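Hi F.,

I've been meaning to write this up properly since the lab meeting, where we talked about keeping a consistent format for the predictions we share between groups. The idea is simple: the sequence comes first, exactly as it goes in, then the structure tokens exactly as they come out, then a line or two of notes. No screenshots and no reformatting. I'm using this chain as the first example so we have something concrete to point to.
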Amino acid sequence: MRAYDILSLLRDKDVSFRTIQHGLTHNGLASAKGWEAALDYYNEIYDSDSDEIVKNLYLSQLYYGKRTVYFRRLSDVNDKNVKNTVDVINRIFTTTKHKDIKTYKNSYPYILDNKSLFNLKLNNPCPVHIDDNANEIRVVMTYPRAYKQRDTFDINDIDFDGNQPKQLDGYEEIIGIKSGRAQSFDSILFNKLNGVLQIQIDHSRNINNEEIDNANLRYWNMISNEFNTWLKIQSPFKKINLFDKINELYVSGDGLINTLSHSTGTGSVKKERMRRRDEDLRREKFHQVGLQAINGDTNNYNITKQWDGECGTALKLTIDAGVAAISQSNPTVNCAIIEGCITESDFNFLVSKVI
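Output, unedited:
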């Protein structure tokens, strides 16, 4: 597959162009200011080295692209629990009777065409690939999901062929809602050394929080059911609570704070965000003065922190417990959003900030 075709898939998958831009530049390839310009350029390029580099960039987004990661850990990291978990994940892959597995495997790692996606059952994950080594085991799950896209069009830019409907007289804009299909590539990843299980939900086009939560629950039920029905034991995992990491990330001097949501002791709820991605909220005067005015009496519940990535990208980690967590006696959140990664090192660096 040519670099042009692979870049088209990345655009269709709604991958951040800024991430791809850094990936191309880091690997010595020409970039552009946006998707259209990049596609125009690579449409004229026939070079096997470029094709291979862009393919590897595509694969990096399959494993390390923007995703919400749910974390669990073995209650006891011993040989038996590790082996049982590896066996369960292997079994999910090897015993599947998914009726569309050939269709998915024939196209993997690439996205199916839109016509094929419309003919497949929605939200019905198929295990399509497995990686198993000394340190970890990963199974990749794929499926189509429906989405809606809302676009606004200037009425002067629409060609009515001289027959503009009278109903549109006086209107300046038209809002269109398009239905589509997006193919997700989620992962179940288990670290055999530290006993941490990650359920990684791919941020395919226009996915919402409810869909992300439902996908996580779907995979967790899949795993726990194997422990219950096949091994006849309870799942040995417990959720990892990341709530305390919000304050730890804020206090830690490394990186930059992009956004922070907090509830103050004086009764207000604040959401602060830096306009420029290279600035740190903690050094912003209004933020500093505000904290001083209330003697630092505030409760953080949502944070996005950023670091420099290996390829020049902005690595971002978001933990959002929701404002309701502030009123809870034991607030919990067991997932984080990871974005901006190109390499495995990028991804593992962000994971290390919460585990």
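Notes:
The chain has three domains: 3-62, 73-239, 243-333.
The two ends are 38 Å apart (CA to CA).

If this format works for you, I'll send the rest the same way.

G.
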